[in-house]
Amino acid sequence: MRSFNYQRATDVSQATTLASQPEARILAGGTTQLDLMKCGVERPATLVDITHLQDLHDITLSDGELTLGTLVKMSQAADSKTVKTFAPALAESLSLAASAQLRNMASLGGNILQRTRCSYFRDPQAWSACNKRNPGSGCAALNGLNHNHAVLGTSDSCIALYPGDFAVALTAFDAVLNLQNSAGELRSVPVTDFFRLPSDRPDLEHQLAPGEMIVSLTVPRSATLARSHYLKVRDRSSYEFAAASAAVGLEMEEDNLTIKEVRVALGGVATKPWRAYQVEQALKGQRLEEKTLRKAAEKVTEGAIARQHNGHKIILAPRVIARALMTVGGLV
């Protein structure tokens, strides 16, 4: 690990100013940043500690939205009665992620910004060809072991998977990330727009500018959020990333038989948290029936591209969506 300078920020303005320096990185829980430093992917000259900024630790609820500070711990949000009541899919996505020890350390902002677990990306000593780590070098995963790589949102430059759960739930329910830069300027970016597709520049993963940091996130309150669910399918029952996951929400018509509104986002299969708009459109106004749900869920794989070892994700993804919708709809 490269030697680095350590600086503790006293407020957001100082943190963003320090973070705008060349080769500086923000440090919160450290569960992603330190991990990347240990494997040699990240080699920052300076770490800016923001963990003592108290105004970034709050969970608040208003008539219109739920707001979570960027330094709220994963475990704090997962266990929050407010989050469980008004946004159950968010709480479930957090409780199913990582381990109890990591959830007690990791911040929500850091969790959103976590980077891929692609083994070719995370082992620079063994693999030089990684466009995400070394632009223009190629992608070793294209013809390598790609069992856990993406089938949606890929390009010829990168098929690395976005690994998180929480951002998938945020994507389903139109969450917004609130960002602040070193000039004190604030801007809000929808989560659906925050993450970039790899295209020919997979090293550019999101819309966060140098010297800018996430200070909070807001989720609009809605009937679909209140009646929501997060389903995660994985190779083992705990401490494992998703083979496929789905965050869903339902609002029914007064007859309680017809779908009025629906929200669907997919994880574990794409290069970014994946909003399934085509599935939502196909289900609005339809009766809540298993056959209808399964048929609509198949639309999520339109445009999916399987590589040698990950074709199972194209089969699994619609089944996970349908199962999640049946669960929240009371059909199972």
From TrEMBL:
InterPro entries xref list:
CO_DH_flav_C, CO_DH_flav_C_dom_sf, Diverse_Substr_Oxidored, FAD-bd_PCMH, FAD-bd_PCMH-like_sf, FAD-bd_PCMH_sub1, FAD-bd_PCMH_sub2, Mopterin_DH_FAD-bd
User: Does this UniProt record's set of keywords contain Ribosomal protein?
Assistant: no
Gene3D superfamilies per the UniProt record, alphabetical: 3.30.465.10, CO dehydrogenase flavoprotein, C-terminal domain (3.30.390.50), Uridine Diphospho-n-acetylenolpyruvylglucosamine Reductase, domain 2 (3.30.43.10)
Q: Which UniProt keywords apply?
A: FAD, Flavoprotein
Pfam families given for it? CO_deh_flav_C, FAD_binding_5
Which SUPFAM superfamilies does this entry report, sorted A to Z? CO dehydrogenase flavoprotein C-terminal domain-like, FAD-binding/transporter-associated domain-like
Q: Where is the FAD-binding PCMH-type domain?
A: 1-224
From the Swiss-Prot or TrEMBL record, give the protein name: Xanthine dehydrogenase family protein subunit M
